[in-house]
Amino acid sequence: MTVESTAAARKPRRSSGTKRASAKRTPQPQSSEPPLVQLLSPEGERVEHPDYQIDLTAEELRGLHRDMVLTRRFDAEATALQRQGELGLWASLLGQEAAQIGSGRALRDDDYVFPTYREHGVAWCRGVDPTNLLGMFRGVNHGGWDPNSNNFHLYTIVIGSQTLHATGYAMGVAKDGADSAVIAYFGDGASSQGDVAESFTFSAVYNAPVVFFCQNNQWAISEPTEKQTRVPLYQRAQGYGFPGVRVDGNDVLACLAVTRSALERARRGEGPTLVEAFTYRMGAHTTSDDPTKYRADEEREAWEAKDPILRLRRYLEREGHADEAFFTALDEESETLGKRVREVVRAMPDPDPMAIFDHVYADGHTLVDEERAQFAAYQASFVDADPAADAAIAAAGVTGVAGGAGGAGASGGAGVHEGDR
Amino acid sequence: MTVESTAAARKPRRSSGTKRASAKRTPQPQSSEPPLVQLLSPEGERVEHPDYQIDLTAEELRGLHRDMVLTRRFDAEATALQRQGELGLWASLLGQEAAQIGSGRALRDDDYVFPTYREHGVAWCRGVDPTNLLGMFRGVNHGGWDPNSNNFHLYTIVIGSQTLHATGYAMGVAKDGADSAVIAYFGDGASSQGDVAESFTFSAVYNAPVVFFCQNNQWAISEPTEKQTRVPLYQRAQGYGFPGVRVDGNDVLACLAVTRSALERARRGEGPTLVEAFTYRMGAHTTSDDPTKYRADEEREAWEAKDPILRLRRYLEREGHADEAFFTALDEESETLGKRVREVVRAMPDPDPMAIFDHVYADGHTLVDEERAQFAAYQASFVDADPAADAAIAAAGVTGVAGGAGGAGASGGAGVHEGDR
Amino acid sequence: MTVQKLPIAKAINESLRKALDTDPKVLIMGEDVGKLGGVFRVTDGLQKDFGEGRVIDTPLAESGIVGTAIGLALRGYRPVVEIQFDGFVFPAYDQIVTQLAKMHARALGKIKLPVVIRIPYGGGIGAVEHHSESPEALFAHVAGLKIVSPSTASDAYWMMQQAIQTDDPVIFFEPKRRYWDKGEVNTEAIPGPLHRARVAREGADLTLVAYGPMVKVCLEAAAAAEEEGKSLEIVDLRSMSPIDFDTIQTSVEKTRRLVVVHEAPVFYGSGAEIAARITERCFYHLEAPVLRVGGYHSPYPPARLEDEYLPGLDRVLDAVDRSLAY
Amino acid sequence: MTVQKLPIAKAINESLRKALDTDPKVLIMGEDVGKLGGVFRVTDGLQKDFGEGRVIDTPLAESGIVGTAIGLALRGYRPVVEIQFDGFVFPAYDQIVTQLAKMHARALGKIKLPVVIRIPYGGGIGAVEHHSESPEALFAHVAGLKIVSPSTASDAYWMMQQAIQTDDPVIFFEPKRRYWDKGEVNTEAIPGPLHRARVAREGADLTLVAYGPMVKVCLEAAAAAEEEGKSLEIVDLRSMSPIDFDTIQTSVEKTRRLVVVHEAPVFYGSGAEIAARITERCFYHLEAPVLRVGGYHSPYPPARLEDEYLPGLDRVLDAVDRSLAY
Ligand SMILES: Cc1ncc(C[n+]2csc(CCOP(=O)(O)OP(=O)(O)O)c2C)c(N)n1
Ligand SMILES: Cc1ncc(C[n+]2csc(CCOP(=O)(O)OP(=O)(O)O)c2C)c(N)n1
Ligand SMILES: [Mg+2]
Ligand SMILES: [Mg+2]
């Protein structure tokens, strides 16, 4: 699977002064509401922001749309696969496509991403084959893709931990004199973790080129953001000495512009930025969750009107940037993607049990070797008729059933229980 | 030892509009410097602050002076006792007397204090017998005073931990509907710990009646504050949704006024406040430390001019609030205190070895009981001629040296090594 | 009559409800324990009935949860804290090990810390990383903590009652894959002491010691062994700190063979402590070395491998056979 | 000739210096490691010679230190992190246990985490609380970490070299009360493997296993025992994960008796693992149960009690006598 590289992400930030025909200056939200950077209204109208300009070609805009649509399609397929029992769990990004595609497309290839467990859209932008993301949710591995092949780190489940990894990585980038940047994703719930605060401290003190991208989807499982903070999260940055900005997380253009600006700031050696993308978790926390226990349907419905994909589509249509053929082709591409994901997942084999002992250490560990050998012998003991089994027992160097002096008895006697497995 | 309760701490915050003769409005520090609440200049002149008024009687002012002088004297005695080998370690508060006495005297009896390991002046204000503080530095206990008898918690050495205890305690105060408040002390270094950030989050979310009192003495052992933060620490509060204020930590009046105001805010149910008392660690980090390795003498000298005690003394003298007799009597009281501390410490007995097994659990633990008995028997085994020893061995229920079936052999054979102890 | 058949999760729920009802100082704290009732519904309905002041949804910060629970305990409350999954207790490890465990001793007994930390633990539910671990040894090594784990609904109910009443910190490990297993709970019968082991099945040839989720596996193994003419005695440990060595010793003096079974990795696990101490106590009785069955020295594997990783019937019986072969 | 007589602290300093010198990717990080050279001066002079970019004073936050070290390792650096004292490693425990230990496996081997965590550990220096602990078992139980501790200056030098070269996370426990003990260091001799135990003294009647600070105590005990006609063999373990059971087994097959000595609490300590495994390996050789000498199940006591708490010569010889009495 190749992913179209949205060239827009490479353009200089302030391309030209020309405004789109539909661009108009809308009043920023009132002072009671925290200021929110928005470049595209829910109705799909371009609005201007004094600090964030963006000027994309029709092709680039279609690219963003395509990214969001395919990501949503992939996400839906994964949810379906979980329902069919092919995955043990799925954490849907439904509703957060703009935050993820906007920020993801702001990145350069040499930037590095530290995601949580929900950044399927960012993974898409990085060119990670989406089926790679499914291994851990199927239960065949804990991630397992090569972080360095797409500069996209493994998903991190322990909330907040990755923000420190990102900060350390960014410290290394600065040490290397590279002009790339690092982005760390985390949620509104994660903002409460001490690790996140420590990453703010370290990144500020070392002036590390890192962007903290907080998707405030307003829920941490069943807890609304009020359980985590009294004030908008973007404000937290200020107390650590770097800027924070709140962006409309359902506005892909604003997310792109704000993230790009923050990344450029990092590249210029001006240190970290906190971006709070204000968005909404449209689905359950994961497929294990039942949001009807804790939130009202109306809330979700209100946010449906702000849908990130619909918003861009309206804009594309209004401006004539995409025609019916484009949308039809995209629908087909979506279905092809869904089908491919389905097929790949269904064919994904269970790992070899011996994999338990692989990669525990890079340089080996005698106990792992010993346990591997014992396990192999034990496994082999169930196939009594197989001469290879005896060889494995012998190779493992464990003594026979009689339990000779100094040796743990082997598992020869266990064969009788074979039927219970 | 009784500690004079400075009645001023009970007065309502805005007592009257009358200004002292010497009071004059001095310009606040320039915008490049963070604003600093100051009510007494280094030269001992009263200055006014629009947000913080204070109006103390001469007696109250003398009380503050006495607190600071006696605290410093106690501290010096402890340092001397460490040099003499009577203490294993001492963490001097030299230079931080105003921050500690000012904030300590702002407290009501029913307020609760969570100190670090350096709040000897606050302990003084709480009426904790200063010799109680020395046990842990002598190595006879880990603290051991009853926190509830003076609402002064044990010293906490693991940096930052106590801020969460204070927050939880304050949550309890709020639950109880009490109108008391809680104060948590911590240092500039501690501000980097995740626990401190989490205490900001919890206290904000639960609107807990807690004051975070950060003594920024500009050093965390050998690291200057720049290694912890890029911006003044009081600013951190804002990002968590509560006010932060920087006060001249060498100005006892300002520390008193600012802390009192923060405590009253807490009592009114308006939640936490962060007070950053900007001060200076005049001595070494502890008696184990050698600051010549990492900081210049000149820095210390500059701060000597801002000495908190000298400052108040100048004011007292200028205003005629204290005469020579007062200062002479105070010197004598200091010497008496020093003498008493010396005597008490020198007479402080080593704990009974059996204390190792005391208070591990409130409700007991069979292993502790077993180890206690074994230890008693082992100890007794060194006094071969003593019949009580054999009784102890028997009582411990361990079997004889022959190592009978099912029992660990006892320690009878160890007597021969007695000479090595 | 007050005997009910309840799943373990519901037995804990009932026990928490009773504690909230009888002692106004008891609080429930944790992530999602309120409206949601916890991800396993163990606190289901409690916030509705006791209010947000007693059943508290906390910020997402485990150190903060335990640290503030300590403060609440100092103020006279008895917090029962939920850690959402075993693998998420580590951000709170510092507060547990350096503060919660030691504060009573630090104060020379002058303050008490009656805090219960509930941790759903262990594997077998097909979960992603960090949701299937058994970290009990990492707490049992630390003085000042008490560590328990029930294996039946009755123990779940009563041990929780006792844990909450204890004036010491208790880490309460809940065998999450057994949450739905039902058992009889008599809410009036006076239970035995919290830290006493229970002989779950009598036998003559070999003793199996297990706790939490592995008790069931051992009972099944004993049934299978019986068909082969082997009589296994099963000791349900119930408490990993303190450990009731007397009950194990009595059993081993009879059977002369011991196998310890747990999900946690064998290396430096609780089986090591039991093996070492029982060997010391029963040196002349043992016909075979104490054998241990448990997890491997590897991270808990992905779900599709957990059946191979977790000690099952066969692994237990394999160890039984190895022991009997001595 | 490159043999020098160095205190252990200085040997580590020299080893760090060499690593900084030979590999530009090596970094030193920690609280006060720069100008001050660490509270024990182990990093003395290194910042002066290698600059603030290589020897980094960090904010006061252990989780941050380890977490950023992980990030730096992902970027290709080899951070050597100092935790100021044993009792202050716990704020970093989550990063160590859930991230550092597991990330290589999580990535199916595609990334490596060559991070060394230096921890001055153990008691005997008359310090206040949290400055004298021996938490090695709390790390050794966790797969993905390697745990070592030198007892001599030579090992301090060479094991640090090897730890830094290892592509796995290594927790390097430094016996702080031995920092000033001198020993010969040959900076050119090729050392044995990092995880191999060393027979520190040969003997016939009983094997003592110890590591770090307790090796010296055991050597003294052996000298005292010799005067009484008892010949003790001493195995310096050097590595607590992995453990070189082969070397212990060989020794025990000869002496038939084993006592394990460590400062850490006995309960769930490394002695338990050694006792359990050696009993299994040497069941028919052992004349006595493996005995353990170590700390009690209590918080590390105040300094004035540490002589009673720490295993000394007499406690070791008491156990020796008890073992020989079987
Ligand atoms: C340390 C830790 N504690 C608890 C959990 C369980 N948990 C998983 S996701 C989650 C909520 C996260 O909320 P947020 O950070 O807002 O991210 P979102 O799921 O909304 O994307 C919790 C509590 C965890 N994974 N790690
Ligand atoms: C968690 C933890 N890490 C490290 C230490 C060692 N240590 C003791 S005091 C100190 C510096 C504290 O600085 P600061 O918070 O500014 O307080 P101050 O000593 O200046 O009063 C350090 C690093 C500790 N006690 N706890
Ligand atoms: Mg969220
Ligand atoms: Mg300081």
Structure write-up:
The complex is a heterotetramer, with two copies of chain A (421 residues) and two copies of chain C (326 residues). Chain A is of the alpha/beta class and 421 residues long. Chain A has 13 helices and seven strands. In chain A, the strands form two sheets. In chain A, strands 1-2-3-7-6 form a five-stranded parallel beta sheet, with helices on both faces. Chain A has a two-stranded antiparallel ribbon with strand order 4-5. In chain A, α2 runs parallel beside α8. Chain C is α/β, with parallel strands linked by helices. Chain C contains twelve helices and 14 strands. Chain C has helices at 8-22, 46-50, 62-74, 93-100, 103-106, 137-140, 153-165, 214-227, 245-255, 270-281, 306-309, 313-324, and strands at 3-7, 26-30, 55-57, 78-82, 116-121, 146-148, 170-175, 182-186, 198-201, 206-210, 232-236, 239-241, 258-265, 291-295. In chain C, strands 3-2-4-5-7-6-12 form a seven-stranded mixed beta sheet, with helices on both faces. In chain C, α9 (245-255) crosses α10. Chains in contact: A-B, A-C, A-D, B-C, B-D, C-D. Chains A and C meet through α4 and α12 of A and α12 of C.
